[in-house]
Design brief:
Membrane topology: Lipid-anchor
Strand content: 15-25%
Largest sheet: 6 strands, parallel
Structural class: alpha/beta
GO cellular component, one term: plasma membrane
CATH topology of the largest domain: Rossmann fold
Protein name: ABC transporter substrate-binding protein PnrA-like domain-containing protein
CATH architecture of the largest domain: 3-Layer(aba) Sandwich
Distance between the termini: 33 Å
Strand order of the largest sheet: 3-2-4-5-6-13
Order of helices and strands: HHEEHEHEEEHEHEHEHEEHEEEHH
Helix content: 25-40%
CATH superfamily of the largest domain: Response regulator
Number of domains: 2
Shape: elongated
Family: Belongs to the BMP lipoprotein family.
Radius of gyration: 21 Å
CATH class of the largest domain: Alpha Beta
Keywords: Cell membrane, Lipoprotein, Membrane, Signal
């Protein structure tokens, strides 16, 4: 989950550090697209880019692809979609950074139509996209500040303000029903992206509960369950009626404690509406595996473009999104309308967040 949180906030890092990043000398830079336009192009024959009559997806991961977590979910979702399409997936996990380039070349030699990088730690594989061995290969890469855009790859990113504003709105719907105006946000390190997430969450709540307040606690660690429980208990003692455990491995410990106090709870990235121990009231979905699966749907339709950063838009793309686990028809309709307004551009999440300082 910590990896999911990092991937979710990649867009923030990209915006902040873009001026410091330069393209690799061997890469072909991609031009900057004007708002509302695209400079990317689907590869001829997509998804069978190399024209050999079959579709092969190659996945490289820096982590254990049997970890029951981020790295495995990235591969599992690819395999599920590929199986339905009759495609083949070649996967390799625990790839050392020093072997990334060689591993990518090996996938191209095995006639992979797409090379997908599971995490930006393996950015050293990307120069292979410029080599003859990979000339007929599409590339899917999670966006990060240290991954420059080129014509040969598609970068995948999102806007954290969107999901977190809607997460707050969903929490606000439930807080209204419970007549509570105080919420809590428990997270790990006090970093730019956790502070941005906290602010957007509060802005979303205030769309419905204008007098709402938010108690934010930085434990310093996404995975320390003891610290998460301590922070959650402290917030419950202050009377919060909703708690967002914006955590990794410590999510369930914090949520279970929030459940005992019947506080509203939200997920940090995945759909856990079916979970009963602990239970969640809202699923906030920004799992990188979901983005990859959505990209494969575009790929199957011949619409996945290289040379662009695909910013997944809430209200436009399947992910990111937010759903109430047991919302009433009226609550569900209000949430759907709010999401649709963001998708249409009627609501600007960044502007809503800025109102907090006005």
């Amino acid at each position: 989950m910590r990896k999911a949180l990092a991937a979710f906030t990649a867009g923030v890092a990209v915006a902040a550090l873009a001026a410091c990043v330069s393209n690799d000398e061997t890469a072909t830079p991609a031009p900057t697209a004007a708002p509302g336009t695209s400079t990317g192009t689907p590869l001829p024959g997509e998804p069978d880019v190399n024209g050999d009559g079959k579709v092969v997806i190659g996945v490289l991961s820096p982590g254990d692809i049997n970890d029951n977590g981020y790295y495995e979910s990235f591969v599992v979702k690819a395999e599920a979609f590929a199986q339905a399409q009759g495609w083949t997936v070649i996967k390799r996990g625990s790839v050392p950074v020093s072997e990334a380039l060689t591993a990518a070349r090996a996938l191209c030699q095995q006639k992979a139509d797409m090379v997908a990088i599971g995490a930006s730690e393996l950015k050293d594989a990307i120069p292979a996209s410029e080599e003859a061995v990979c000339a007929k290969t599409a590339w899917y890469v999670p966006s990060s500040a240290n991954v420059p855009q080129t014509r040969k790859i598609m970068l995948s990113s999102d806007d954290p303000n969107q999901s977190m504003l809607v997460a707050g709105y969903a929490a606000g719907l439930l807080m209204q029903a419970r007549n509570t105006a105080k919420a809590g946000f428990v997270t790990g390190p006090e970093a730019d992206f956790t502070k941005i997430a906290s602010a957007a969450f509060l802005a979303g709540i205030r769309e419905l509960v204008p007098a709402a307040t938010l108690v934010t606690t930085y434990t310093g660690d996404f995975d320390d369950s003891g610290k998460a429980r301590e922070a959650t208990q402290a917030q419950l003692s202050q009377g919060v009626g909703a708690i967002y455990p914006y955590l990794g491995g410590a999510t369930d410990a914090a949520t279970a404690l929030a459940n005992s106090a019947k506080a509203v709870t939200l997920t940090p990235g995945t759909d856990r509406c079916a979970s009963t121990s602990p239970a969640f009231d809202v699923s906030v979905l920004f799992d990188p595996g979901d983005y990859f699966a959505a990209a494969l749907q575009l790929y199957a339709a011949g619409k996945l473009e290289m040379g662009i950063t695909k910013t997944w838009q809430l209200g436009v793309d399947p992910y990111p999104t937010v759903k109430l686990c047991k919302g009433t028809p009226e609550q569900n309709a209000k949430l759907a309308a709010f999401i649709a307004d963001i998708g249409r551009g009627t609501i600007d999440p960044a502007a809503e967040v800025r109102k907090l300082g006005s």
